[in-house]
Amino acid sequence: MGKALRALRVAAGLTGEAVARRASMSAGKLSKIENGKVRPTLQDVELVLTALGVGAEVKEEFLAAARTASAEATAWRQLRQLGPWKHQRTIRAIEASTIVLRLFQGQLVPGLLQTSEYASAVLSLPPGLPDETRARTVAARLERQSVLYESGRTFRFLVCEHVLRWRIGEPEVMALQMDRLVSVSRLPHVSLGIIPAGRRMPDFPMTCFSLHDDRLVLVETFHAEITTRDPRDVRLYRDTFDRFATVAVYGDAMRDLLETVRDEFLPSRERSWNTESDQCSISDVRLRAETPPEPPGNHDRPI
After folding, report:
1. pTM for this structure?
2. What is the pLDDT of residues 156-199, one digit of tens each?
3. I need a surface site. Which of 24, 62, 213, 224 has the fewest CB within 10 A?
4. What is the dihedral of CA 144, 150, 153, 156, to 10 degrees?
5. What tens digit of pLDDT does each residue of 233-274 get?
């Protein structure tokens, strides 16, 4: 596969640096793929072929071969070793070539909709990233969000209600995240649906996934990110998305739900402050009770 991709690049008269830049990968990685030192994932093959600008038939032939020769799952530990911010750039390239994105989330707020504080809290969960790596990854994730403001695209998000209450960070972080969702939901080509916990479900959220047009599905599990382009799998995830979409709430009802959840986080902070204040008051009373009275004397005398 690597040698074949190199042959296509040479035939196109392109340098490795130019193709790597278009494919949102490092020149070093492309070189290792072309020399057989790194097995390309399906995502890598598609990004390189897109960067080369090959025809649809050639592209499909290569992808068919890649499905046979390449593993369908990429372990998170591998992505962590390579640099998680680099994987964010790969996802950004995939999103940039997607016209209609459908994303179902039963675990976290989607990365395209996360605030920097929420994203940092997510990447701090075990196994947490080192500070510098986390900062670079958060920055790369936020850079992906520029695609939300590009015309000619459609974004459909489905998020389970329990995700909103799944406390990833401090109450202030969660409240700010709810406000971000409300704001993004008003973009003209963004559809955000919240699946209320009290409704009868057509299925259960086995995992989260993103459907890119009708050509590619990315599925996240605890140990790996799974890629599939099999038309049968794509159809399965499309049908699953459509079933959940029928029970979601949208528009003003959805925003009312988000604001209710946000307000549930804010009082918790006030209660915390009140509790601390009460404890201080109790301590003050106890201190005054235990402090012996001052001896009598002329307290009006200046010191």
Report:
1. 0.69
2. 999 999 999 999 999 999 999 999 999 999 999 999 999 999 99
3. 213
4. 50
5. 899 999 999 999 999 999 999 999 999 999 999 975 554 444
Q: Give the residue carrying structure tokens 């390579």.
A: 82
CA distance 53 to 206: 37
Q: How far apart are CA 178 and CA 109, in angstroms?
A: 10
How far is Cα 201 from Cα 106, in angstroms, rounded to an integer? 13
Please tell me the predicted confidence (pLDDT) of residue 272. Answer: 46
Q: Angle 280-283-289 (CA atoms, 0-180°, nearest 5)?
A: 145
What spatial distance separates the first Cα and last Cα of the chain, rounded to whole Å? 91
* CA distances in angstroms from 106 to 26, 195, 206, 289, listed in the order given: 33, 9, 8, 54
Determine the Cα–Cα distance for residues 226 and 255; give it in Å rounded to an integer.
Answer: 32
